[in-house]
Write a structure and sequence with these properties.
187 residues, alpha/beta, two-stranded antiparallel sheet, 4 helices
């Protein structure tokens, strides 16, 4: 009998292209086509960027962003098994590539202590998640002035056009999955 293993996720570009990462049991990683679209949209903005990966799961977005030129990436996850998976995946690619933080989301964002701002924020909450407004409000103070947040969600779910200081600028659909993009609104 084969061991019960979750399928891996293959990185689609950058320095680590083709590397396969483990996925924690029960996790639903972002589909390759969605990650590729995200990185294509962000393109040159990744060079030297500070990226925050929320609900990081396997850490694929944070790790691939480093391989595509991001200066810094922080993977945030609340599930202990997922945190172990992220640590194992990161150590396979190189020591100290990303920072990993344990945090219950979105509540933990209100207690972010460093004052650091991120150029790019990606969040891929579980599909049963329904606290998108709180998540966006928690992201807003962490987003750099010209920064952008991308939230992955089911295409049938419509996120708010505005949440706190953030305004939705685009929605891209990929079959059953959508990415909603947010930036700071006019002050």
């Amino acid at each position: 009998m084969k061991p019960n293993r979750s399928p891996g996720v293959r990185l689609s570009g950058g320095e680590f292209r083709g590397r396969v990462l483990a996925v924690p049991k029960g996790a639903r990683p972002s589909e390759a086509k969605v990650r590729e679209a995200l990185f294509s949209i962000w393109g040159q903005r990744l060079d030297g960027a500070r990226l925050l990966d929320l609900f990081a799961g396997s850490g694929a977005v944070a790790l691939e962003s480093i391989g595509r030129g991001a200066l810094r990436a922080v993977a945030v996850e609340g599930n202990p098994q997922a945190l172990e998976t992220i640590e194992a995946n990161a150590s396979k690619l190189g020591k100290g590539l990303i920072e990993i933080r344990k945090m219950i989301l979105p509540a933990g964002l209100a207690r972010w202590e460093t004052g650091e701002r991120f150029d790019l924020v990606f969040a891929d909450p579980p599909y049963a998640f329904n606290a998108y407004t709180g998540l966006l409000e928690g992201i807003a103070p962490l987003l750099a002035e010209e920064g952008e947040a991308a939230i992955e969600h089911a295409a049938r779910v419509q996120l708010a056009p505005e949440a706190g200081k953030l305004v939705r600028t685009a929605v891209r659909k990929y079959g059953e999955i959508a990415l909603s993009f947010y930036r700071r609104g006019a002050e």
